[in-house]
Amino acid sequence: MKTKEMVYAALFAALIAVLGMIPPIPLGFIPVPITLQTLGVMLAGGFLGKKTGALSLILFIVLVAIGLPILAGGSGGLAPLVGPTAGYIFSWPIAAFCIGWASEKVWPRLKTWKLIAINAVFGVLLVNLIGAPVMALITNTPIWPGLAASAVFLPGDLIKAVVAAVVVIQARAVSPIEEKVYGA
């Protein structure tokens, strides 16, 4: 791994930590709050690509595990990684990898709408399809009601998917994917 990739991974882990400083919106009927950190997941995958994007989220999770209070609401340590939020958090590197993989595949023909679709499938649906069942299992709730309750995240997550796509398209010229595809 190149030094530049390691720096990008650390930078995006820090960006996701900064997004965690924005107060979460707690919901009374589901133990997982609404946060902006999934925006960082989509940005990491779309801007950095599959390998570096996933690495940035793995680094972020390691920092959470060692106790840094970088999750939304200032939480950190092992509790969020074994509690109701665990499935969502552990889905983030998978989502960043998948977003990066799909972005790299269509990079020469990348359009905003394609990136919105990629973010919607892997940054919204995939995260919720992993996170909600894990949340349901941990809270001893049937999976279908858990999935139904997680539908509350969809409108905000779709807005984040659009924002992330627009930002990545605007910053496309300096993306590591651009260097990989065009050798810039």
From TrEMBL:
GO terms, molecular function: biotin transmembrane transporter activity
Database matches in InterPro entries: BioY
UniProt KW keywords: Cell membrane, Membrane, Transmembrane, Transmembrane helix, Transport
GO cellular component: plasma membrane
UniProt-listed Pfam families: BioY
Location(s), subcellular: Cell membrane
Chief location: membrane
Membrane-spanning residues: 7-23, 29-48, 55-79, 85-103, 115-138, 144-169
Membrane topology: Multi-pass membrane protein
Family as reported in the entry's similarity comment: Belongs to the BioY family.
Protein name stated in the entry: Biotin transporter
Source taxonomy: Bacteria, Bacillati, Bacillota, Bacilli, Bacillales
